[in-house]
Design a protein that fits this description.
The protein has twelve helices and twelve strands. With 295 residues, it is α/β, with parallel strands linked by helices. Among the domains are: 88 residues, Arc Repressor Mutant, subunit A (Orthogonal Bundle), CATH 1.10.10; 100 residues, D-Maltodextrin-Binding Protein, domain 2 (3-Layer(aba) Sandwich). GO terms for molecular function: DNA binding; DNA-binding transcription factor activity.
């Protein structure tokens, strides 16, 4: 099989159709179909399931995809190393981010990086902690922003300590915002909660403090959560970085005991990064790591 075969397979997996893959790669649908047929004949099993609604991966295809991504990423690393040896800073970096990093940090990171390295292309994938973790495991992204607790077995460099806040409807607590709120007081409130994969650090705080929250409202995104709090449907826990971008009129209090998430930059293999990836990795750590985490 050739690199083109792997690229065709990966593109179909991402696009979900032969036609879209053909458009992205500048090939005809028949060429795409022929490439996959030849691949399946050589492998001895099917990698795609065709249906009226589109194309999806078979179980074999799902297992094969991370290895295909690995081959393509290795080829990209080789091309970047050759360019690097020739004195050209070029290549491509794929970055996985969760929402608050995407809105608060990423625009400045991309802008400052592009000013220095115009020839390095950047691609951004936004999702939850779980999304970023899986993208890294499958080779979809080169670098990923995660909290230290959600990185699991992926090596991660801490960058920033982000305090957790308890968010209440405006005026629901007599003390001024900026003061603290304790566990016992939180227990008397209804909660608006998010699914576990959305913010593992909040889930950890609840478990560590035996906070068995009662909630009729289970949402996914931060804006929806705080919007429900503003209208009096409950309280929630949110990282401070999230609340910088929230337009709703609510009160925020530090938790007692104090808690925080630590945001870091993760990479699957710190010892082996393509030149463009390492350049971005070093740029972020040099310019955006807080003093307390510097060696």
């Amino acid at each position: 099989m050739t690199l083109l075969t792997y690229q065709v397979f990966k593109t179909i997996a991402e696009a979900g159709s032969f036609q879209k893959a053909a458009d992205r790669l500048g090939l005809t649908p028949s060429a795409i179909s022929h490439t996959i047929s030849s691949m399946e004949n050589e492998l001895g099993f099917s990698v795609l399931t065709r249906s009226k609604s589109g194309v999806s991966l078979t179980n074999y295809g799902e297992k094969l995809l991370p290895y295909v991504n690995g081959v393509l990423n290795s080829d990209e690393s080789l091309q970047q190393m050759i360019a690097d040896l020739n004195g050209l800073k070029q290549g491509k970096v794929k970055i996985g981010v969760f929402s608050s990093v995407c809105t608060s940090w990423l625009p400045e990171i991309l802008h400052s990086f592009r000013r220095k390295y115009e020839k390095i292309e950047m691609e951004v994938f936004q999702g939850t902690y779980e999304d970023v973790f899986l993208w890294m495991k499958r080779g979809v992204v080169d670098l990923g922003f995660l909290s230290v607790s959600s990185a699991k077995d992926i090596p991660i460099v801490p960058l920033y300590r982000d305090p957790l806040l308890c968010v209440l409807p405006k005026g629901a607590k007599k003390e001024s915002p900026g003061e603290s709120i304790g566990i016992e007081e939180m227990k008397h409130h209804q909660f608006v909660t998010q699914r576990d994969s959305t913010d593992a650090d909040i889930q950890n705080f609840l478990k560590e403090n035996s906070l068995r929250v009662q909630s009729n409202y289970h949402v996914v995104d931060d804006l929806s959560t705080v919007a429900l709090v503003e209208k009096g449907f409950g309280i929630c826990l949110m990282p401070e970085l999230v609340m910088r971008d929230i337009p709703y009129d609510v009160d925020c209090y530090l938790t007692e005991p104090r808690a925080s998430r630590i945001i870091g930059l993760a990479v699957m293999n710190p010892e082996f990064m393509a030149p463009a990836v390492r350049t971005m990795y070093n740029h972020i750590i040099k310019n955006y790591q807080e003093e307390e985490f510097r060696n």
